[in-house]
Specification:
Order of helices and strands: HHHHEEHHHHHHH
Number of strands: 2
Largest sheet: 2 strands, antiparallel
Strand order of the largest sheet: 1-2
Shape: globular
Length: about 290
């Protein structure tokens, strides 16, 4: 009996550790989504496709001999520039129309990017050759994949950097001012269009970095972004739209529920506890865990 209890506790600790590491990656993906919404009141339905592009870019660099971790700053910078271009050419014009324009416009961008990826790369699952960090790290009785540890740690550091940028820099304060009241921000001399473009670029850079980290353990294919985007939408709504702290807390909760549900229920039902938790929070606190009314 004692041995069974120890084994059960060890298994539970391993699942919790894995869930937290998974949640940290979800937090980085959701961070860009909540940042864009907080500043611009825009839900970018093509967010997952930006992640997919980052994963393909990471694969391309790996084929040139640049590994995912070394290539991460390059991919993040490329997605940052891509996000600014998309905003300047596309999103800015949608903002001048009715609110529904951004919904249909970003969904159309999703279809366009996904279709282009299907045409260029086919539907094959592709992985980085000679993946690094494929060993296992033992912490007492708990064994964790090195790739998962690096993904989680990298996502945590990058999330903290974005949070510090938004909270403690002059540009971050300008972004928060635009999020609070764009008319008042304009009257105070803040260039709202520049802040919007910067927020959209940083949101894209977040998924760029997440895509590079995910290539340590995930394959890439044209619809891979949908898998993470759906979870990111749940994380953002659960934590509170526009709240970076809420996105982190909700992502950790979602990661735990997904891993525990997949083990104790079944892999096919792993998202059921996540959606149940989301429904409970929506009923009791519609603005999310740390969101404002």
């Amino acid at each position: 009996m004692a041995d069974a209890a120890v084994e059960a506790l060890t298994t539970f600790a391993l699942l919790v550790a894995g869930g937290l590491l998974t949640g940290l990656v979800f937090a980085l993906v959701a961070l860009g989504l909540t940042l864009v919404y907080g500043v611009m009141d825009v839900v970018n339905f093509a967010h997952g496709e930006f992640l997919m592009l980052a994963m393909y870019a990471t694969l391309g660099l790996a084929l040139l001999g640049i590994g995912p971790l070394v290539g991460l700053p390059l991919v993040a910078a490329a997605l940052f520039l891509f996000g600014i271009v998309v905003y300047r050419i596309f999103i800015r014009r949608l903002l001048a129309g009715p609110p529904e324009a951004t919904v249909f416009g970003t969904f159309g961008l999703l279809v366009l990017i996904q279709g282009a990826a299907q045409a260029l790369f086919s539907s094959d699952y592709l992985s980085v050759p000679n993946r690094p960090l494929q060993g296992t790290l033992h912490l007492g009785p708990i064994a964790l994949a090195q790739s998962a540890l690096v993904e989680g740690a990298g996502a945590l550091v990058l999330t903290a950097l974005v949070f510090a940028f938004v909270e403690y820099t002059e540009t971050g304060r300008a972004m928060r001012a635009v999020a609070e009241d764009r008319v008042a921000a304009t009257l105070m001399g803040i260039n709202v269009q520049r802040i919007n473009a910067l927020a959209f670029g940083i949101g894209a850079a977040c998924v760029g970095a997440a895509g590079a980290l995910l290539m340590l353990s995930y394959p890439v294919y044209p619809t891979v972004g949908s898998q993470f985007a759906l979870t990111a939408f749940v994380v953002v709504a659960l934590g509170g739209f526009g709240s970076i702290q809420g996105a982190l807390v909700a992502a950790l909760l979602v990661g735990l529920l997904e891993v525990l549900g997949g083990f104790y229920l079944s892999p096919e039902l792993k998202m059921v506890p996540v959606y149940l938790a989301y429904l409970v929070v929506v009923l009791l606190r519609p603005q999310g865990l740390l969101g404002r009314r």
